[in-house]
Design a protein that fits this description.
The chain contains two helices and 13 strands, in the order ααβββββββββββββ.
Length: 321
Amino acid sequence: MKAFVRYVALCCVLLAAPGALATCGSAFCTINTNWDAHGAWAEPGWRLDLRYERITQDQPQAGSDRISVGQLPRHHDEVFTKNRNWLATFDYTFNVDWAVSLALPYVDRSHFHIHNHHGQPLPESWDFSDAGDARVLGRYRLATFEDRDTPKLGTVGLSFGLKLPTGRTDVRNASGDLAERSLQPGTGTTDALLGAYYAQLLPMKDLSWFVQATAQVPVNSNDGFKPGRRLSIDAGLRYDAMESLSLMLQVNGLFRSRDSGVNAEPDDSGGTSWFLSPGFSVAITKDARLYAFHQIPIHQHVNGVQLTARSASLLGLSLRF
């Protein structure tokens, strides 16, 4: 019974992670650092998660092919974008059925491209730090399944909420040039979030897995810009190698439709990405865990020409109160 309660609580917090914000080729990693990193904390109450990501996009890509800068000329020949993201997530679990979370991102971003103006190459750059778009998620456990003959449990649930337009959309560089909308800290739109998950303890001792899907759909546009719809799919395996050490492996998929509007770049937005993400977590105390992941793209197909990342790194700390 104790294991049953702990597992239900584990699944209640499954969908708090902000992985569906964007692919590592755009702004944020798709890694789910909630269920997979933190383990099962059963008691209702508060949890604070602090997460740092470092993502350097310096590989131009056309379709599924890597290309060099300017190989396929565009109005802007993108050179690199360096993302150093901070994310604070406040999570409150009411009981085994209900929980809510608030995620607050902070973006430290550097971008450089070459503006091809009437045949004249003009270098342009932006370097800024600012708050991004917050998201609020509620979570509800639909059902829990228990097999008395084997030591396994399964839980299915839903998440629902909103991404809010809290991030700026008017960031300019030192020359007064407005950054592209896809580069801004926020999208300016309110997006609906809906997700579902299934998680299970496996018959093999100390082994568990999960799968989840989350859709993000903008419900409005802002100043001639509407970001594309997103669908993220994550599957993860967790092995508790020691009492204080857990080893994890995730496969993360992201499907993005094209941006739209007069201030969007529909020809060079949207695509499909799959990532492999190994990681580990260490219990510092009974109420604190340190975790790390490294994300590697295994397949990426983009529309038009876009910058992608060769890899991304993530480090986090999760605290229970």
